[in-house]
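I am still getting used to backbone structure tokens and would like to learn alongside you. Would you supply a protein for us yourself, any chain you care to pick? Start from the sequence, derive the backbone structure tokens from it, and show both lines together. Go ahead whenever you are ready, and we will take it from there.
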Amino acid sequence: MTDLSDLSPAAWPGRVAAAWPALPLLAALALWAYAMRHTDVSALDDYGLVTALHPAFWAGLVVLTAGFWFTVRNPRRGNGWSLAYVLGLLVMERATQAVLYPTPLYAWAWKHDAVIDHLLTSGGLQTEDQLGDMAVYDQWPGFFAAQAALVRLLGVDNTAMYMAWWPLVSSLMLLLPLLLIYRTFTQDRRLIWTAVWLFFVANWVGQDYFSPQSVAFALHVGVLAVVLRRYGRSGGRRGRQGQAVWTVLVTVLVTAIVVSHQLTPGMLVVSLLALCLTRRYRDWVPVVTAVVIFLAWCLTAALPFLSAAMPDMIRSIGDVGANVETGYGATPTGTGAVATSWAARLLSGSVLLLALVGVLRQRVLRHRALPLLLIAAAPLPMFVASSYGSEMIFRVLMFMLPGAAFFAAAALLPKVRTLAADADAAERDGRARPGTARRRGLPLPRLRYGAWMPLLALVAGTLAFVPSYSGKDRINYFPQREVALVRQLFDQAPDGSLVVAANRNYPLAYDSYWRVDHYWFLDDDRRHVDEIVRNPATTLARDMAAVERPARAYFLLTQGQVANSEMNGQLDKAQLDRIRESVATSPRFERVAENSAGVLYVLKPAS
């Protein structure tokens, strides 16, 4: 062991200077841990997690971002510290909800859990005749089959045991391919890690929840990484032979994408076609591979769904206005919903604007990183193709981010081509004056415009991620009481029963979908919704009367449905209260269960 007393006094400041990045990182994580212990999520308002978080959380994000910025700008720091800060960012922004909420978020995540449960219980895929609209998941079973295998491998009851942590897991899956992509075009450590930081900060869309899209997107970025690094222009037969291994890898990745998700293969094809516009990546093997596998799946396993959906898909081609609008039931309503929506828009707009500035400012990158610029622009034509359930604008933004984040990071940095030259000049200067004592001490930042303005922009973007990503947690979070109420419903519902609810925003909404039918009346024609509001009990009883014994017809209203209806411009609280009171006082309905998170009624048999 080294006796610290033997070290010269000059060595102490040097060791402190080498370890100083640990101080902001540890301080930020300590503030985050303190905030987790002192944040109450029992009564979320229309701002979601934003107003519920303890102030220590926000202070921790500021400290973390500042520590990252001054660490990554220091040419003497290795990649290890930058990686540690990015991992800290993912923990603070992707694991916070898993720590705070006792149940998983998002009705769609619960839906995917139900699909996996069905796959485990039925033992195989089923057709539309057996499952109706839900058969579409059996036509793209890749993600669900893999998760069913994982459930059995881990020995857990269902995916609800771990799906709350999936945002962190899926974000970690993106880290390696992003680094590979960025390292293809620059060795500037500052640019690489700042781009990674901005990618995760700007990726508020929410594709990282427990879904096929989360895995398919990571595989999509992985394919791009392989193509960019291994399919560039290379000379000789030997290089071409070496690509056979990478072609096999691309084939496996593309196959996993195609069998798991509907949209991602199309985005991958347009991205690979965009790369072929450059001379360096004019290799048609990846494009042909993706197109052949995509078409083969569409013309076989996915043909039943595509045949039914094709007329609507054809009508939407070219209708850009309809493809980018949100439509009824998806319009932010109320101060909190509007504010968080604008936070997301400003965050995305700022990153895209920074990307444009980076393209104009960093001249060397416009040529050297042209493929990344094409990848960022490639998803834009998808606006012409489809609305994708009013989500196309969000999906296009997400697929633009790998390229956009790179150029946005370039806008925040000095000229990237000078980094290596500056390092060499500093080394030569040190060798020229060996007798000069090196100045030691903490590398405290100097108050310069060039260092502080980009830092403020980075801090603002990092803080804006929270309302953009978690501002609708009043909709997405289901307390344990709500889960218990819905579980009580499905535990007692006989086969062939009908569950009527305002919308599908409640946990276990698709539980037992292979034996229980669902009707969400806010998805119905607007005239019928108005009829329900005018005369709730009579209209609902008429809609539910066709269910025959021993099956039952249930009416379920929970706080998740109310939050979704209010914040997305469907029905307001007064209208929902009118529906609930009408059903409660009607002799046609009998109350089955009730708690602070909702109420459950059953339609009495007709006399």
Q: What stands out?
A: Residues 335-361 form the longest helix (27 residues). The two ends are 89 Å apart (CA to CA). The beta strands are 498-501, 517-520, 553-558, 589-595, 598-603.
